[in-house]
Design goal:
Layout lengths: L1 E7 L3 H12 L4 E5 L6 H6 L7 E2 L3 H6 L5 H10 L2 H10 L4 E3 L4 E4 L5 H13 L3 E4 L2 E6 L2 E6 L2 E12 L15 H7 L5 E6 L3 E2 L13 E2 L3 E4 L2 E3 L3 E3 L3 E3 L1 H4 L2 H5 L4 E4 L6 H8 L8 H8 L4 H11 L6 H9 L1 E2 L13 E5 L17 E3 L13 H22 L4
Parallel strand pairs: 1-2, 1-9, 2-6, 9-20
Antiparallel strand pairs: 3-5, 4-5, 7-8, 8-9, 10-19, 11-16, 12-15, 13-14, 13-17, 15-16, 17-18
Helix pairs in contact: 1-6, 1-14, 4-14, 10-13
Length: about 400
């Protein structure tokens, strides 16, 4: 089979690349290994599809840390405002939450995906599911399908195969071995936005499933005021995900159980006579610790110091003992994969001209909050535009 453009991977980056190529008037074949496209996208939308974040451009870009400058041109071309306009063109009214996060009013991902796939159908994009990419045989991409091996020769190819988490939804990182065999340099995969293993003592079982509110998580220079959840396996949730990269890279994890109270004020309160109050009730009253916060203090702080100043310092910077990140397949996203140094400015593989890459395959990371999806869409569009220009024999 010969086609002008082949897109491998049916997640947001691949769908956006297919849209751009289709709009440029090219014949597009979209191959997806799973029975249906965008499974991780749909899963993300179950609790409310966070499309992007309404934020000043430089503040938005800063969320990508060390990869911000590499992603700048792509996010300049398709940033938060453009993503919102794109979704609205697909008939999805949006709203912005109090923290700037942008959601479809329908909240779910499925209405947006249906409209998107209908647009691709209208552009003549051909979709094939249960087509698992096996690599190349010469110039032909080879796929394992229910009908046997299929070979596709394409003028350009866009790889959008995801990272290495949530393998059951399609992102298994198996493509890394294929590209490595082609001489493409790769960065090791690392989990991003993940929980941490904690070997809880038995008394914490009563707290499993309970949220930790009103605290500040610290890891190096990173601070998060988000909530976390005590699970049987450890600590999870947005508050932990926001500082997880720093902890993963070696920073100590601490929690301030009284972030709105100055150390001196807290020490002064704890120095008051306890009288006949129990120690727990005294801490509840003077340090304003709720039962979950007190449980954490006892879990990680015993033996508690009797000196008010030392106890205040412990409450303000309680060390969290953990056993490292949860397994990478459970992470919301991954870093690693294709380094930008292995790609041209148009996201074309230097080792394989005519092949472009996009999405979570690339070595970048960002916190949750709309940053992940926006960058997947932006890199997909960027790869699609440059692939289309390659077919047309012109620069972008």
């Amino acid at each position: 089979m010969k086609v002008a453009a082949l897109v491998i991977g049916g997640g947001p980056a691949g769908l956006m690349a297919a849209e751009v190529l289709g709009q440029a008037g090219h014949e597009v074949l979209l191959a997806e290994a799973k029975p249906s496209p965008a499974r991780k996208f749909l899963m993300a939308g179950k609790s409310g599809l966070n499309l992007t974040k309404a934020e000043a451009p430089e503040a938005f870009l800063a969320a990508y840390g060390a990869r911000a400058e590499a992603l700048r041109p792509m996010l300049d071309a398709l940033g938060p405002d453009a993503v919102q306009g794109w979704a609205e063109e697909l008939g999805q009214p949006l709203f912005t939450g109090p923290t700037g996060r942008v959601f479809p009013k329908a909240m779910k991902a499925s209405p947006l995906l249906r409209a998107w796939l209908a647009r691709l159908d209208g552009l003549g994009v051909t979709r094939r599911t249960r087509w698992r990419w096996q690599g190349w045989d010469g110039k032909a991409a080879v796929f394992a399908t229910l009908e046997g091996a299929q070979r596709v020769t394409a003028g350009v190819t866009v790889l959008a195969l995801g990272g290495a988490s949530w393998a059951r939804l399609g992102s298994d990182g198996a493509w890394a071995d294929i590209l490595s065999a082609e001489g493409v340099p790769l960065a090791p995969f690392k989990p991003v936005n993940m929980g941490f293993e904690v070997p809880w003592s038995p008394h914490m079982a009563a707290r499993f499933g309970q949220p930790i509110k009103g605290v500040a998580w610290h890891a190096g220079d990173t601070i998060s005021r988000g909530e976390a959840v005590i699970s049987e396996r450890g600590l999870e949730g947005g508050g932990i995900y926001a500082i997880s990269a720093a902890v993963r890279d070696g920073a100590a994890l601490t929690v301030d159980l009284a972030p709105d109270t100055a150390l001196a004020t807290l020490a002064r309160r704890l120095a008051k006579p306890r009288g006949k109050m129990s120690a727990a009730n005294f801490r509840r009253k003077q340090a304003r610790l709720d039962p979950v916060q007190q449980a954490l203090l006892l879990e990680f702080g015993q033996p508690l110091p009797s000196d008010p100043q030392a106890l205040a310092q412990l409450i303000k910077a309680l060390p969290i003992r953990h056993a490292g990140p949860r397994p990478m397949d459970e992470a919301i996203s991954t870093a690693g994969g294709l380094p930008f140094e292995a790609l041209t400015e148009g996201l074309e593989l230097k080792a394989r001209p005519g092949v472009f890459a996009a999405g979570e395959m690339l070595d970048w990371e960002a916190p949750t909050g709309g940053y992940l999806l926006t960058a997947c869409l932006a890199t997909g569009a960027w790869a699609g535009h440059h692939a289309a220009a390659c077919l047309a024999g012109r620069p972008v």
